[in-house]
Specification:
The chain is mainly alpha-helical. Helices cover about 50% and strands about 5% of the residues. Strand 1 and strand 2 (about 80-85) form a beta hairpin.
């Protein structure tokens, strides 16, 4: 039995992708603009699930930020007691794991997409995204 939830098309899914929240980091906004239209088109995201997309986008942004630090400063640094793992490496690892789990929950991974063949259309023409 799979431990991953099946992502199904939602009755009442969003009919258009809202703009990314202004507080998202640069790479998070780019990821939002990349994945949210895909989720909306596939009828797989409702307004109540946008926080999951936000969390996923923050995780992606943290991956990019931590990787830039690791590339610039290296995987290790010299402390008084000798070489130590750079904290950005731990941040990178944690963010990658979070992004993977959230991508799976949102149906963004190949395995998750294979589970969802849906595309049900709901009555969502009155979605009011301005209150989000």
């Amino acid at each position: 039995m799979s431990r991953t939830a099946t992502v199904t098309a939602l009755d009442g899914a969003l009919s258009r992708a809202p703009s990314p929240p202004p507080w998202l980091p640069k790479h998070g906004k780019a990821e939002w603009k990349r994945v949210l239209p895909v989720l909306v088109e596939a009828r797989k995201i409702g307004a109540h699930e946008l926080q999951t997309v936000e969390a996923y986008c923050v995780a992606v942004a943290r991956i990019r930020e931590a990787e830039e630090i690791v590339q610039r400063e290296g995987l290790t640094f010299m402390s008084q007691s000798g070489p130590k793992r750079h904290p950005a490496g731990t941040i990178l690892k944690d963010a990658m794991e979070s992004a993977r789990r959230l991508a799976d929950a949102l149906g963004l991974t190949p395995a998750a997409r294979a589970k969802n063949k849906g595309g049900a259309r709901g009555n969502d023409d009155t979605d009011d995204l301005s209150s989000i």
